[in-house]
Amino acid sequence: MEVNFVIHDDTISAVATALGDGGIGIIRISGNKAIEIANNIFRGINGKKAEDIKTHQVSYGHIIADGEILDEVILIIMKAPNTYTREDVVEIHCHGGSLTVKHILDLTLRQGARLAEPGEFTKRAFLNGRLDLTQAQAVMDIIRSKTDASLKMALGHLSGQFADKISSFRHELLGMIAHLEASIDFPEDEIEEFAIADVKQKVNNLVAEINDLVATADTGKILREGLETAIIGKPNVGKSSLLNALLKEQRAIVTDIPGTTRDIIEEFINIEGIPLKIIDTAGIRETDDFVEQLFGMKFTDNKIINCNIVLAANNLAVNIENFELQAKKGIK
């Protein structure tokens, strides 16, 4: 299949690792000036420049700014089209201190790159035919996966399983159209009646397959986003204690003073691969406290309306094993 590449005049650069301090930070550059920018700021330990490095090979050296060493790094040159974006791509692997990463990113921008927008590397991969829409979405689903089940689903989409299914539907439809066109173009062969009956049966089968696929949409949404589960009840009935017990950590403040929880606390737990977004809400009561009314009661009302599951606490002893058992039954 012929792929038409989208030519971008600008080169983008961004930090590819999570914000904050860490052992390694990665700055990614993509575009027709990526190698030129790397060539201007990188010097290999043996004097080699970025333009001399073979594609998909690693080189050790230093980032140079104003004649001084900014950091020792590993540089990877990846030449188009065998890259994530199908453009020339350079990755600079430096020490993960936030200041070091910022200085190197700023240096690439001064050399002519533009700061990439959120998701722009994946956008370019899509525009250049490297990924289809389902695979582009799967990239974010992998990043946001909360359970093994959601990760497995996202990896399946990234590998093209969903796209292949859609492609097979399209192939079947084109076959049906060809069959009908043949009956119209060659009426003397008396195949019209047979063609219509055959296509009708194929359409019914295809509709059934599509309906089965559509029926999995809710399951996919749950695996991606989790089931929103609100814990509600009057003050001091154990809502925050239940949240802490489910998370197995002291996430929420627990006191005998009514109205302690004024803001919404959200955390994820994993029950047999199904992510549950547990939401600890403010106690439901009449109060003259303006802050509690605005940020507690109002948010609680909204969560009750929009949540998938609502747990009503009523001074009962927290039984986590029983809750997990009931949750599993409800999910299944």
Description:
There is one protein chain. With 332 residues, the protein is of the alpha/beta class. It has eleven helices and eleven strands. The model has no long low-confidence stretch (mean pLDDT 80). The relative contact order is 0.08. The strands form two sheets. A seven-stranded mixed sheet has the order 3-4-5-6-2-1-7.
Structural class: alpha/beta
End-to-end distance, in Å?
A: 42 Å
Helix content: 40-55%
> DSSP strand (E) fraction?
15-25%
Alpha carbon gyration radius: 28 Å
Q: What number is the mean pLDDT? A: 80
Tally the beta strands.
Answer: 11
The secondary-structure element order is EEHEEEEHEHHHHHHEHEEHEH
- What are the segments in which pLDDT stays under 50 over at least 5 consecutive residues? none
Silhouette? flat
SS summary, helix count: 11
Biggest beta sheet attributes = 7 strands, mixed
Largest beta sheet: what is the strand line-up?
Answer: 3-4-5-6-2-1-7
Essential attributes:
332 residues; alpha/beta; 7-stranded mixed sheet; 4-stranded mixed sheet; 11 helices; flat
Brief description of this entry?
It is built from 11 helices and 11 strands. With 332 residues, it is an alpha/beta fold.
SSE arrangement:
Layout: E1 12-15, E2 22-30, H1 34-41, E3 42-44, E4 57-65, E5 68-78, E6 89-96, H2 98-110, E7 114-115, H3 120-127, H4 133-144, H5 148-158, H6 161-185, H7 192-215, H8 217-225, E8 227-232, H9 239-247, E9 265-271, E10 274-280, H10 290-306, E11 309-312, H11 320-331
Parallel strand pairs: 1-7, 8-10, 8-11
Antiparallel strand pairs: 1-2, 2-6, 3-4, 4-5, 5-6, 9-10
Helix pairs in contact: 4-5, 6-7
